[in-house]
Design brief:
3 helices; 33% strand; alpha+beta
Amino acid sequence: MVDHLVLFEVKDDAQVEDVEELLSRLRGLRSDIPNVVDLSVGENFSGRAKGYTHGLFVRFQTPDDLWEYLNHPEHQAVAEKLETLTTDRLVVDYDHDR
């Protein structure tokens, strides 16, 4: 299994409606893109995230499934929106079966 983790920091001046739309579009990737095993996204509620305001978790069966997801047009469109609404992102991908 391959896990894709993204931590991101929403810009201070981002509109609440835009952030909600982004989160909704991210959630929609679960059904829009084949081979997504699990997906969750949400706002951080603890003070332990070192400035990151939100987290995204996506699980795949194989690394190839991850690459398919990353190159899918729906993901590309959401990634553009993420770029405009965030100031910082941290991405970690790992295969926990190895």
